[in-house]
Automatic annotation (TrEMBL):
<keyword id="KW-0489">Methyltransferase</keyword>
<keyword id="KW-0443">Lipid metabolism</keyword>
<feature type="domain" description="DUF7884">
    <location>
        <begin position="13"/>
        <end position="85"/>
    </location>
</feature>
<dbReference type="GO" id="GO:0008168">
    <property type="term" value="F:methyltransferase activity"/>
</dbReference>
<keyword id="KW-0949">S-adenosyl-L-methionine</keyword>
<dbReference type="InterPro" id="IPR003333">
    <property type="entry name" value="CMAS"/>
</dbReference>
<keyword id="KW-0808">Transferase</keyword>
<dbReference type="GO" id="GO:0032259">
    <property type="term" value="P:methylation"/>
</dbReference>
<dbReference type="InterPro" id="IPR029063">
    <property type="entry name" value="SAM-dependent_MTases_sf"/>
</dbReference>
<dbReference type="Pfam" id="PF02353">
    <property type="entry name" value="CMAS"/>
</dbReference>
<dbReference type="InterPro" id="IPR057206">
    <property type="entry name" value="DUF7884"/>
</dbReference>
<comment type="similarity">
    <text>Belongs to the CFA/CMAS family.</text>
</comment>
<protein>
    <submittedName>
        <fullName>Cyclopropane-fatty-acyl-phospholipid synthase family protein</fullName>
        <ecNumber>2.1.1.-</ecNumber>
    </submittedName>
</protein>
<dbReference type="Pfam" id="PF25371">
    <property type="entry name" value="DUF7884"/>
</dbReference>
<dbReference type="InterPro" id="IPR050723">
    <property type="entry name" value="CFA/CMAS"/>
</dbReference>
Length: 399
C-alpha cells in the first residue's frame, strides 16, 4: 500500500540517521520504536492522521495534537523536543524563518484578536502566572530565582531604566492586569495610568488598584492606545507592540512620541524576530501561533524596530536582549501549567487546554533556539538626551 511504503521510508530515515526518541502506535496494532528508549509515544488513530506525522512541520504537528488527530504521550518538554527533531530531520536540518506577514489592523480587528487570547478567563491565567499576574518576560538575577522574584525584578528593571521619579506621570500601554502601574505608584510614587483593550484585564486591574488603596494615584482605562490624549513624563509598553503590525510601527511610535513630554523617557519591551527580514518562527511555528494563539501578531526584527522608532522622531538610548530570560520565564509557566493541568481542564475545553500547553512549552523551545528574541529599547525624543552618561543608574538599586 502507498501509506505503508511512505511510512517505511519515514521510519528508515529517522531510525538510521537521527535516532529520534519516539515510538509510533498505529491503528492496526503495529508498534514502531525509532530509538531504543522512546520518550514520546505517538498514537496514530487512522490512515488519514498519518500524513501529519510523515510530512511534519511544527504547524501540522501542532494542529494534529490540538485537534486530536494524533494522540501523544510524554512530558510536554519531550513532546516539543521530538517534534522539533522530526521537522529538522525532514528538512535536512535547515529550519528557515517563514516570510513576514502583514495583516490588516483596525480597532475592531485588534480588539477581537486581544479578546481571543486574553479573555479566556482571569482565573485561567491566575493558575499558572505569578501572584501579580505578569504575562511577559521576567528578569532573573540568578538561575534559581522564583517566578515571583523574576517578575518583580523585571518591573523594577524597567522603572529604573526610565528613571521614574516621585510625582511623575507614567503611561503603560497594554497594561495587562496592572502589576506595573501598581508597582510604579506604590514603590516609586508615580501617578500611573494603564490602558488595555482586554475587558477582563481591565476589570481585574481596576479591582487590584482599589484593593491596594491606590485609586488616587493609579488608574486603568479600557481604551485603545490610538485614542489616548495628554502628555506623560514616562511611557512604557510591555508585550504589546507585537499586536501593532509591521506596517503600523512608525505610526505606533509616532503616537507614543506625541504623548511623551520633551524631557520624557519611553521603554518598549516586546518579542522580536531573529530573522533580519522579520519573518515568522521557522518550520511552521509562526503559522501555528497565528492560527491558534495570537491572531494577527507580527514580529519585527530589532533593526526594523530601531528604524521605525527613528522615523517616528525617537532616539534609542539603550537596547537589551532578554531572550534567555524569556526562555526561563516560559519554562516556569509551562511547569506551572503542567502542575495545574487537572484543574485547568475544568476551566477550558480539551482543545484550548492543548493549545496553551503546547504553546507555552513550544515558545520556551523557540527562545532557547534563538528563533525569536525579546528586546527592551529605551528612547527619548530625538535630540533630547536626558539620561546620565553611563548605565550605572539602572543597577544602583539592584545590588
Amino acid at each position: 500500500m502507498f501509506w505503508e511504503r511512505k511510512l517505511d521510508e519515514f521510519v528508515t530515515q529517522l531510525s538510521s540517521e537521527h535516532q529520534v526518541p519516539m515510538g509510533i502506535h498505529l491503528w492496526n496494532g503495529k508498534q514502531i520504536d525509532l530509538s531504543e528508549s522512546p520518550k514520546v509515544i505517538v498514537e496514530v488513530p487512522s490512515v488519514a492522521s498519518l500524513r501529519h506525522l510523515i510530512k511534519p512541520t511544527l504547524n501540522s504537528l501542532g494542529e494534529a495534537y490540538v485537534e486530536g488527530k494524533l494522540q501523544v504521550e510524554g512530558t510536554v518538554t519531550d513532546i516539543i523536543d521530538v517534534a522539533s527533531q522530526l521537522v529538522e530531520a525532514s528538512t535536512g536540518g535547515a529550519l528557515e524563518h517563514s516570510k513576514s506577514k502583514r495583516f490588516r489592523h483596525s480597532r475592531k480587528i485588534d480588539a477581537e484578536s486581544i479578546a481571543y487570547h486574553y479573555d479566556v478567563s482571569n482565573d485561567f491565567y491566575r493558575e499558572w502566572l505569578d501572584t501579580n499576574m505578569v504575562y511577559s518576560c521576567g528578569y532573573f538575577h540568578a538561575l534559581d530565582d522564583t517566578l515571583e522574584q523574576a517578575q518583580e525584578q523585571k518591573i523594577d528593571h524597567i522603572l529604573n531604566k526610565i528613571r521614574l521619579q516621585p510625582g511623575q506621570t507614567l503611561l503603560d500601554v497594554g497594561c495587562g492586569w496592572g502589576a506595573l502601574i501598581i508597582r510604579a505608584a506604590q514603590k516609586y510614587g508615580a501617578k500611573a495610568l494603564g490602558v488595555t483593550i482586554s475587558e477582563q484585564q481591565y476589570e481585574e486591574a481596576k479591582r487590584r488598584i482599589h484593593a491596594a488603596g491606590l485609586d488616587d494615584c493609579c488608574e486603568v482605562r479600557f481604551q485603545d492606545y490610538r485614542d489616548i490624549t495628554g502628555q506623560f513624563d514616562r511611557i512604557t509598553s510591555v508585550g504589546m507592540f507585537e499586536h501593532v503590525g509591521l506596517n503600523n510601527l512608525q505610526s505606533y511610535f509616532s503616537k507614543l512620541n506625541s504623548l511623551l513630554s520633551d524631557e520624557g523617557i519611553i521603554l518598549n519591551h516586546g518579542i522580536t524576530s531573529s530573522d533580519p527580514n522579520s519573518g515568522g518562527a521557522p518550520a511552521g511555528g509562526g503559522e501555528f501561533i497565528d492560527k491558534y494563539v495570537f491572531p494577527n501578531g507580527e514580529l519585527p526584527h530589532i533593526s526594523l524596530v530601531l528604524e521605525q522608532m527613528t522615523r517616528a522622531g525617537l532616539e534609542a538610548t539603550d537596547i537589551e536582549n532578554l531572550r534567555r530570560h524569556y526562555a526561563m520565564t516560559l519554562e516556569h509557566w509551562a511547569a506551572r501549567f503542567e502542575a495545574k493541568s487537572e484543574k485547568l481542564k475544568t476551566m477550558v475545553d480539551e482543545r484550548h487546554f492543548r493549545i496553551w500547553r503546547v504553546y507555552l512549552a513550544g515558545c520556551a523551545h523557540a527562545f532557547h533556539q534563538n528563533w525569536v528574541e525579546l528586546h527592551q529599547v529605551v528612547a527619548t525624543k530625538a535630540g533630547h538626551y536626558v539620561l546620565p552618561l553611563t548605565r550605572d543608574y539602572i543597577y544602583q538599586d539592584q545590588e
